[in-house]
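User: I'm curious whether this sequence folds into something compact or stays loose and floppy. Could you predict its structure so I can see for myself?
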Amino acid sequence: MKVVISGGTEIGLLFAKTLASDHDVHVIESLPHALEQLEQLDLQVIVGNPTSLAVLQEARVPEADAFIGCAHSDEVNVISCLAAKQLGKAETFCFVNKAHYFETFAGELGEHLAIDRLIWPEMLLGEYIAQILAVPGAIDVKVFEHEDLKLLEFRLKTGNSAIGKKLKDLGIPRGALAVALFRDDQVIIPGGMTTLYRNDKIIFMGHEASMRKIENRFNPNPGRNLSVVIVGGGNVGYILAKSLEAYSQFRIRIIEKSLPQCQLLAERLSEKVLILHADGTDIAFLRSQQVENCDCLVALTGNDERNFFVSMHAKMLNVKKVITRAHSTENIEFFEKLGIDVALSSQFNAVQSVCRQMSDDSIDVFTIFEKGKAEIREIVVPHHFPPTRLMDLRLPEGVIIAAIRRGGHTLVPGGEDKLKEKDQLRVFCAKDQGEALSEFLLQTARDAAAAKEAESGG
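Assistant: Here's the prediction. I'll summarize afterward.
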């Protein structure tokens, strides 16, 4: 797949690192420090302005399958995406950072633009955090649209009844699977005899009805009201609060130190949301608000140092769940290793979202975990593959078949279920093990075809 990325700083570099190993990637950039980082990757760099027709042609935009406008300027992104649509067939992804641009182009005016996708990373992040909060106890939630599949990730904290048990003793309902464990820096594909330990992160995947039973198992008090404190009332804080308004069980407080921003929030949000004009890094104020009794504190201030400061104090006060925004993707792992439950980056979240939306069949990675240590892939079972029970397959290490898509229906398989040719698999695998499974399936199909040919020839 040929991909052109306009902009090589921050989010553009993330895209380049994600796509360069498997695709023909061209990046348009002119800033020296960004060019130095891009030169270390296996891709083509075009030095220049992405609004220049000559530069777009040099980047081979007319032949591109996808064009990603993620430069430093919203105006540049809009213009370059419009130009890309005029030059060729590329699917266009246009990033904007200002609310008014998104509101303008996502509305009626946007219907008349040729741009395929408009992405506002802060909106995606706010909605994603709301999705996580809607499942108490979970540290990650993903819904696979049109497939009746849901993914939930939980961290096993002190006192969790699953600690010390073997996976087979959890009573996982039919229609759900435990697909992975993250322990320290290890990615473990668990089996029934796998023992669970404190601080393990465990991922379940399955049908919605079965996953509700998993939710209840990790949330001993379903149906009770939940208190959420949001520190920072900027775009993400506003979008998060607006998203949570739709849920009756949430009591929401926003702590914002800018008085004009507080007034704006009060105008745009319902009376259900309490707006507090204060500095969220003031620990005395946090104590006066009894944040230790809240179910989740979300740190969304303007920089990582303040978010980290607020989050660590929340952990010290024994807040049940702490979610923190990391403006720098490099801080995600650092924050979580120091005890923060969930650290999220709007840039990293947006990159994953766009990669899932790309229409070419060669983009088969649905989502990435632990900064690339594991992933969910789509793998199609090749022709001539003999119908085989999962329990009879000697799958490569580091992979588990989480779901089978067949004839418009999705099956969460057990050992007795058979794999058949043309099945679309949803595979959870450690890094690079997806290729090992593809090769295994292809070789099995070849062997079966050869055996059949020999038999008929005999």
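Summary: The chain has four domains: 2-119, 125-218, 231-349, 364-453. The mean pLDDT is 90.
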